[in-house]
Amino acid sequence: MAIVAEQGPRVIVLLSGKRKCGKDFLADALLQRLSPDRAQIVRISEPIKRHWAEAMGLDLGALLGDGAYKERYRKQMIEWSEARRQEDYGVFCRAACTTVRRSVCIVSDVRRKTDVRYFRETYGPDRLRTVRIEASEWVRTGRGWQFQAGVDDVPSECDLDDYRAWDLVLTNEQPDGVEELLDRLVELVESAYSAA
Fold first, then answer.
1. DSSP assignments along 154-182, one per residue
2. Which of 21, 15, 27 is nearest to 136 (CA)?
3. Is 24 annotated as a binding residue?
4. Quick check: 107 and 13 in contact, CB under 8 A?
5. What pTM does this model have?
6. Pairing relation of β-strands 128-134 and 39-42?
7. Which residue range forms the structural domain that includes residue 21?
8. Are 156 and 1 in contact (CB under 8 A)?
9. What is the CATH number of the domain that holds 138?
10. 97 annotated ligand binder
């Protein structure tokens, strides 16, 4: 049975999408729109990368970035984190949520059904808003994406492909369409905030 947290954020926005669809970009832009005094970004991958950096003597800042450095270690991090999730599906979600201090929490890297399950069970469905960000392979390739076996064909990229219970689906392909996408995200957050 789920235990719903009495404290914590009033609204939790779960962002999901394939690599190079623009999740981090939209999360950062949404944060600025909502104000860092009111909202914050939480990344489920941060505890994974922190452990990996400490264990392997790597640069945490570079692992948290969006460059080639992170890509060199991505497959190994995925394999290690999958093994941890087999023991406890919520281990990284729980670790990431220890930093939540604002009334709106933007989770920028939801990748698995168990991630959605963790937030639903921990905070209750009324606080959650789920968003799928989509972009074609052609657009993602233009942003630097290249298919990588063991990365793009495993649960960390594919587990939510057949999930259909999104509150909002956004197509992020046009640079001049970002403001409209942000308007829709803000509207989703504000309606949830009013209902909370």
1. SHHHHTTTT----SEEEE---GGGHHHHH
2. 21
3. yes
4. yes
5. 0.88
6. unpaired
7. 11-44+99-195
8. no
9. 3.40.50.300
10. no
* Span 79-122, pLDDT tens digits: 888 888 899 999 999 999 998 999 999 999 999 999 999 999 99
Is 18 assigned a ligand-binding role in the annotation?
yes
How many structural domains does the chain have?
A: 1
Helices then strands (H, E): number in the chain? 9, 5
**Phi (first) and psi of residue 15, to 5 degrees:** -100, 135
Does the annotation flag 105 for ligand binding? Answer: no
Q: Was 17 annotated as part of a binding site?
A: no
The candidate with the shortest Cα–Cα distance to 130, out of 85, 170, 88, is 170
The response to whether 176 counts as a known ligand-binding position is: no
- 143 known member of a binding site: yes
**In the predicted structure, residue 2 carries a pLDDT above the cut 70:** no
124 is in an annotated binding site: no
